[in-house]
Amino acid sequence: MLKAINTKILIAILAALTAIGSAAIYQSHEAHKAAAILQQQQHDADEQRSRDEAFRKQVEQDKKRHNSAAGNEGKTWKSYIP
After folding, report:
1. For residue 80, is it left (φ>0), alpha (ψ between -120 and 50) or beta?
2. Mean pLDDT of all residues in the chain?
3. How far apart, in whole angstroms, are the C-alpha atoms of residue 50 and residue 24?
4. If you write DSSP's letter for every residue of the chain in order, what string do you get?
5. Per-residue pLDDT for 2 more than 70?
6. What is the distance of C-alpha 22 from the center of its chain?
7. Span 21-51, pLDDT tens digits
8. How many angstroms separate the CA atoms of 63 and 57, rounded?
9. Alpha carbon distance 15, 21 (integer Å)
10. pTM of the predicted protein model
């Protein structure tokens, strides 16, 4: 009788340890997955920043070109003869 109770207690302890171990493994797996997602998001944010910066530079260059052309526009109308 005592041997059966000890066996049942041992099985219960092993089941509890198995549950704790699997929970620890699951938590570790989720932490690695979250770290990978965070790294991907940071990489995407860096790429977006570089694209935004390139776009801003292009807009500034286009603005400078547009403004210089607009400065010469009045001269063309003065020399226009219908």
Report:
1. beta
2. 87
3. 39
4. -HHHHHHHHHHHHHHHHHHHHHHHHHHHHHHHHHHHHHHHHHHHHHHHHHHHHHHHHHHHHHHHHHHHHHHTHHHHHHS---
5. yes
6. 29
7. 999 999 999 999 999 999 999 999 999 999 9
8. 10
9. 10
10. 0.56
